[in-house]
Amino acid sequence: MKLPSLYLALFFPVILVGEEISEGEKLFALHVKPLFAEKCNACHGDEPDKLKGDFDMRTREAILRGGEYFADEVLIPGKGAESYLYLTTTRTEEDYEMPPKAADALTEQEQWYIRDWITEGAPWPDDERVEQIQEKYAEGVRVTTSKALSDDWQNRRYQPEDLWAYQPLVRPKVPKLDSTGSGSTSNPVVANPVAANPIDLFIGRKLQELDLAPAGEAEPRLLIRRATFDLLGLPPQPAEVNAFLAAWEQDKEKAWIDLIDRLLESPHYGEQWGRHWLDVVRYADSSGYANDYERPNTWRYRDYVIRSFNEDKPYDQFVREQIAGDEITKRKDAEALIATGFLRMGAWEHTGMSVAKVTRQLFLDDVTDSVGQVFLAHALQCAKCHDHKFDPVPTRDFYSMQAIFATTQFAEVETEWLPEENRNGMEQDKSFHLKRIEDNKDRMAMLKERQQFYEAKWFQKRGLSYQSIAEAKKAGLKGDELPEGRLFEKPEEFALGPISKKWSNRFSWEMDRYRPVAFTVYNGKTRKPRGNYGRIDMPKDPMKEGALEQTAILGGGDPFSPTDPVKPGVLSAVPGGLEYEIPETVGGRRTALANWISDPDNTLTARVMMNRVWQYHFGKAIAGNPNNFGATGKKPTHPELLDWLAAEFVEQGWSVKAMHRIIMQSQAYRRSPNHPYPGGVKEKDPQGISYAVFTPRRLAAEELRDSMLFVSGELNREAGGIPIRPDMNMEAALQPRMIMGTFAPSYVPNPRPQQRNRRTIYAHKTRGQRDPFLEVFNQPGPDLSCEFRDTSNVTPQVFTLLNSEESLDRAIAFAARVLEEREGKSDEEVVYRAFKLAYGRAPLEEEVAGAVAHWQAMIEVQEKASFEPRVYPTEITRRANDERTGEPFSFDERLRVYEEYVHDLQPHEVDARTRAFADLCLVLLNSNEFVYVY
Amino acid sequence: MNTRRDFIYGLGSSIGSIAFSSMLARQASAYPGPGAQALHFPEAKAKHCIFLYMEGGPSHVDTFDPKPKLKELHMKEFTRSGEQQSAMSSGKRYYVQSPFDFIKAGESGADMCTLWENLKDCADDMCFYRGMQVDSVNHPTANYQANTGNQFGGDPGIGAWVNYGLGSENEDLPGFIVLPELAHPQGGAANWGNGYLPTNYQGTPLRPTGSPILDIQPPKGITPEHQRKNLDFLAKLNQRHASWHPEHEDLVARMKNYELAYRMQTEVPEAVNIDGETEKTKEMYGIGSEPTDEFGRRCLLARKMVEKGVRFVQLYASSWDSHDYIEKAHGSLIPRVDKPIAALLKDLKERGLLDETLVVWMGEFGRTPDNGVRGGGKAYGRDHNPEAMTVWMAGGGCNAGHTIGATDEIGAKAVDKVHHIRDFHITLLRMLGLDDNKLTCFHAGRFKQLSQFGGTVIDDLLA
């Protein structure tokens, strides 16, 4: 990429010839005309045959003429305050608020521009003169972009602060701070500023501005818990805590660095940070919409992401592989093909009822927008129908970006297994899957029998002896002599046909789970899609069938209304973007895009990723909307820090792990969650942007489940492989779920604890059937890119954590584990161990005493309690309405997994003492200290 | 930090020891929603909405829009093609007449097929609309469009928007309750999601069987006293912990949630219990007899919820997707909902609630006047039709006693008073006093709204 040229066309004075410019003309050229274009003309001029209220605003004469309402009072030259053109913008005229959308309301300043312009006589200089006036007086900066739909948009100006993300990335100078105190204390904003981490100097300068001293360093026991959750998503082991505390005593800096190194080497690191990435790309194991078919191979992409983080794959390479892996690799290796699965992460399906152009466009819009959000922090969808309202992204750029994908086609391609891919458990899973297929075959055979029975009956009624239609046809019967339609009599007979047919189709596609298929793309012509009920094969000759797509700007985003054809290109407002060439060849477009994104000179890429990384460490981003760096996104609180991180990131060879080390070694990261003068922090930093104190966070849904399994000793830490199926609330798991024309098979867990009690990132993620445990703790839905998770605090979380069988199972296992480990020891020692496991700290004496007392009290309660073995249904009867008959029907589904299901330890299997201790454990798992990280 | 506005979604400050029954009592003051700037039509009558969603796409020509012309055309073959057609609607087609007879109901003479034995008595309270069109010919996308305005999912449900704008009348109950069938519809819970609005606007489904809310009961064998002891110990641990982090407000909110949850375990099942209703009422809704029991229960529950101040109740009745055997399928579906819906309208009216409760009946699209050949024989069913459908409203200030708009002579396409569904959404909000253009939320770079892009109110639907 060339160095960015001067892209901000800052104004250069032009000497105007002719008469003096009046105030009114100035108002018109600088403010009123652009306002009309942006806020009014869509309804009052752009489409002259569809004028709202018959009011045309394209010329002065037309405005003077007025429309259906207010007639000649719309514009009374010289009387701004009385003209309805002004009055309607003040939104005081009920039912005539203009523009109608509150979101488009003019600011008071803008309203006054219109009023004052009218008062000045409402002059209307011609376009040439307007341009001259704008050249001379306009504020703000222009941005050169490809070509807008309208000239007004093309010429519009931006507030420089809204363009921060397009500024070339220059490594900022690190501020020099002395160690004098700040705020009401003598605490310095930075300890030892000479040797300090640059991060702390940037943050220190802001603290100085706020006149705020930061909190001190957190206790080491908090630090190890914080770092371990941050990098692994799991709590530290008690032994690890002990070792760290001892090392800290010796040399705390070394202990800290060693800890970070150890954690970064853990295979669990990639699981935690891969999860963050999967939130952004909307990972799921199913396709969504009507059929919500399983995507049997996306798990290979999930593992690719985890591996990439574990290997510390340079981020620029990570970007290139996901956008253009298939093009870049010469030898079509599996890794690269799997990586481009990224392009297909959105929900998508094409059924017999779909319109080909519509579903194709669904993909194109989705991939364009998601590349924009994920790598460039630009919500490009906003520019799909009109030039972007706030950012310098013309609609042309949306479709130029889209043209890059015009030759991108779906395929599921057989590859080799990669040596690092985990194939454990596949055989076992498959054997169970085959049983499901068998059961379904039985159902189909039974139906066939019923059909034959009814056919024979039909003929018999007519005194004929044919046993089937086929037989009758053979004998020459036709037309009215044969029965019409299905002969079934009972609703379940009608319903079972579609169920078994659909299931047969689903199950056979799901067999791909056990094959080394890559969910990927290739380049070629766009074929007419078939109903997408199975693997999409790669054509032998990708240029043979179908049409080569020519991308055009779509009127109103409608695929049936193409307008101007466009060439592939990138965002023209980004320095270098306008000149950047994407080849128009069938292949290579995505490589060119990937190279542009991963170029160190791209002003967005490194900033976007560093902003995300920072956010996951601190619980807040520097620029508050990691998917939106445009004018409407939150501005960076520490712009120079973000730039420094981004520049350093590039310098470190795009190593994410190097950046973790730098960030985590800062004083800001090691800060205490408690400030000595919290009132002062609230007062001086009401928005909480100072990093004067470390903000605690609630565990994410996956961290919570994983941690419960971890402390209960049940977590199988095996990495990767086909999706696991954890235990799910039974009512939710067996909840009938409509899919196209019928019902989906039930959710069933893996039969063995070691298979299902694995980390949650490996859990099967079905778009149409979310795990309520995870959903209630704010696991985001996989339909929209999630830039940051909510952490709501809602009552159903209590039901889940306190009442669910999953929670109870963990508590029992936790209790049994500790009692076994401390067999023969005193109650105090048992309790001590449980606290250590749950909180990573030793309990206080009074905590031990209180816990022992509670345990004793609960033994009495538990001795009177009785628990039945839980019943696992090996068959369920499901009731639903059949759409063919409109009548209720029921059918049985065998749940073969429960025939060989090995349940987790249950209350009835342990004694009252253990159960009572499990009560204590359940309380620990529900407690705030377990659920929050400080 | 959350507020005490919702009983399901988030409880912050204390609700003290008020009994749940009084929590459920209707409260005089309203708690405004963040979208309160959208409350713009003080004359609007509707304060609540009961949305009867007929999933699958009920056939307008077999319910409320008779087409005698189809009798002439019955089984006549024709072909259809075109770029915008899906595989489903291409190729050889046959016209299919309605197997049902129609009557003119009420003084207004509304068209209804004779299967609406009970609903016909309510005709003068209903406003039928035949001009609506939607974009999608597929169920999940059409469901999403009907329920969220956006075909592709992920946006807030109508009920979420309504609560966002109107706020709560009873902050101890969720403002958006969904009464689904046991089977969730195509597209699942995203049909009543909160989208980009705060989580507390999410629809709360009350399950028709089993526990109304998942895990609302402790596991078998654990008594309330047992659990109380654990909760007391939990409170001790949490209190000590909170004293170490006095600035961390979430801790307190979370502690309070445990106390609320404990009370709700007994109170919620009572709140959704209809045993206290009179036998007469139950009989009126068809409870205790088939085929109306199931939907009747939910209609009655909807009335109860509205009485308690719930803003938006959505009921699902599934399997209207009658591709084959329209006579059999619609013939059995209509009697399942006819009596319960009629009872709901009458009951609301008797209690003086109909004026302030907008009842809406619709599916995701209408059906075609024709069908292809299916399954070897001719099946007299109908395919999906996004260009024509019938929706109706009752109460809430709708133009009762009128039929607005019309479809062509075979019911293939709306031809009079034609509006996109977005205009219907705008009208629905308008009837609840909300201005769609003001009911917006900034997300992913732009202001979003239920109608997606704005539109117009369908004035004819307003009284």
Which secondary structure elements does this structure contain, and how are they paired or packed?
The complex is a heterodimer of chains A (934) and B (463).
Chain A: E1 8-9, H1 23-40, H2 60-65, H3 84-87, H4 108-119, H5 127-137, E2 141-143, H6 151-154, E3 157-158, H7 198-210, H8 220-232, H9 238-250, H10 252-265, H11 268-281, H12 298-310, H13 315-328, H14 334-339, H15 356-376, H16 395-404, E4 408-414, H17 426-461, H18 469-474, H19 491-510, E5 517-523, E6 552-554, E7 562-565, H20 589-597, H21 605-618, H22 639-651, H23 656-664, H24 678-684, E8 697-698, H25 701-711, H26 730-733, E9 738-739, E10 742-743, H27 753-756, H28 772-776, H29 795-803, H30 805-821, H31 827-839, H32 845-864, E11 875-881, E12 888-894, H33 912-926, H34 928-931, E13 932-933
Antiparallel strand pairs in A: 1-2, 2-3, 4-5, 6-7, 8-13, 9-10, 11-12
Helix pairs in contact in A: 1-4, 1-5, 7-22, 8-9, 8-10, 9-10, 10-23, 11-12, 13-20, 15-16, 17-19, 21-22, 21-23, 29-30, 30-31, 30-33, 31-32, 32-33
Chain B: H1 20-24, E1 48-54, H2 69-73, E2 77-80, E3 91-95, E4 102-105, E5 110-113, E6 126-129, E7 132-133, H3 139-148, H4 158-166, E8 176-179, E9 204-205, H5 224-244, H6 249-271, H7 279-284, H8 293-307, E10 312-317, H9 326-350, E11 357-362, E12 366-367, E13 370-371, E14 384-385, E15 391-394, E16 402-404, E17 406-407, E18 414-416, E19 419-420, H10 421-431, E20 440-443, E21 446-449
Parallel strand pairs in B: 1-10, 1-11, 6-16, 7-19, 8-9, 8-10
Antiparallel strand pairs in B: 2-3, 3-13, 4-5, 6-15, 11-15, 12-14, 17-18, 20-21
